[in-house]
Amino acid sequence: MNIAILGFGVVGSAVYELADKNAKVLEQKVGDRISVKRILDIRDFSNHEACDKFSKDFDQIINDPSIEIVVECIGGLHPALEFVKAALQKGKSVVTSNKELVAAHGKELSEIACINNASFLFEASVGGGIPIIRPLKTCLASNNITEVVGILNGTTNFILTKMLNENLSFASALACAQKLGYAESNPSADVDGHDTCRKASILATVAFGEQVACSAIPTQGISKVTLRKLQNARERGCVIKLIAWIRYVNGKLRCSVKPTQVPLEHPLAHADGVNNAILVRGDFVGDVVFSGPGAGGAATASAVVGDVIEIARVLMKRRKLNEILQYA
User: Fold this and answer.
1) Residue 199 annotated among the catalytic residues of the structure
2) Are strands 145-151 and 275-282 parallel, antiparallel or unpaired?
3) Fewer Cβ atoms within 10 Å of its own Cβ: the N or the C terminal residue of the chain?
4) What is the pLDDT of residue 181?
């Protein structure tokens, strides 16, 4: 079963590494070998061990009927949106970790997938390696979800943890995050809350069935959180975290993203460093907490390939059904 990877950055390369290293494990779980046939990237990878798989021409992927699953790891809206649309319209299933794409166009892309008998999965778009999208759609689907609250950005959580534990200023902690590769040279998407806002929009759609545009979510970042504010909160038995809230208020779904004082006894209070944590409140199950690494290539690749496995299993069932019908 052939797949293609679009983009060979941190996530794309980790997806390739996982698929290659755990090839036998994937084959056992799917019932067929998962093979990376093409990797799309405009850069030169002539010295890479898989140099024969690289291409700069998307048409080689879209026009290859043997490629059944496309993994989008480019990021951003363009050309990711155009590539994903084209793949789905060809009946190829798509897996993505692109939260900006899913937040802005997830509903549209899911509809295109449905029309073309394909799948559009995006587990890795929220929480990195933490399973949250699939549990909301399956395990918790029988519950009336009343609230989702979470720490959805590993970079900001690392900065706030670093400031408090090492008595650092925001600027110093940010510089450390950048040095370690947790923050980009332009960290605005993380520290200004935009990344968390996009993930909150996705969770609102999945958990509550209502699409909430990012522009409708009040969003505050962490750049104005000082060491003194963190210390004062600790003296009151709290920690400050960048929290996304999604819940009904007076019968209307409300979302917000802002630095919040979280009591130490709260389940989210002890998610430190780059870890994420998400609390889902259901009317029958009560409070369920998902926590773990929310960022990084390996964690994200874990969720991406998990989606690939789910699609591959569906495709294998179709193959077997077609074989049965052929000989019936």
Assistant:
1) yes
2) antiparallel
3) C
4) 85
